[in-house]
Amino acid sequence: MAGARQGKRESGNGKGARILIVEARFYEEIADALLAGAMRALNEAKASVDRVSMPGSLEIPPAIAIAVDAARRKRRPYDGVVALGCVIRGETIHFEIVSQQSARGLMELSVARGLPIGNGIITVENEAQAFARARMDEQDKGGDAARAALALVALKQRLGRR
What is the set of active-site residues? Predict the structure, then answer.
């Protein structure tokens, strides 16, 4: 089995971007670790951040749609979104449903709406893997999701100027 990718962790500029974080709080400590990484990356980019918490990862895509629509109606649209959550395999097929459907929902929203979304919903076998992926001093998947969203925001801004 291959080890974790150790590529560069650069994002697009995204400076001053308005970013929405939608996080699942089902696993509180893991959620805190993912959020810490995302906030560090967004603060470094000097992005402004709003945050919405949901009970679980399946609620993230509809929460994004609701929040993005509300922000547009108020003429304060978000430039991008960071989705944060954790799905740990259990003894039933619920893991497959939640992991696949949350990812599908995020991809559909992103492509259909041209909405930059960084997917930081981690899917793991156990709690130890979750913490290893979530902690900033380890794999920092929250930070990676924020940097991915910022890179997409920067791409959209760059191509939109042409």
Answer: 94
How far apart are alpha carbons 115 and 61 in whole angstroms? Answer: 12
CATH of 18-160, one of 3.40.50.2000, 3.20.20.210, 3.40.50.960, 3.60.40.10: 3.40.50.960
CA dihedral 140, 144, 147, 153 (to 10 degrees): -150
- Residue 89 CB partners (closer than 8 Å, separation 6+): 95, 123, 124, 125, 126
Q: Give residue 159's identity as a one-letter amino acid code.
A: L
Distance CA 152, CA 160 (A): 12
90-110 pLDDT tens trace: 988 999 999 999 999 999 999
pTM > 0.85: yes or no: yes
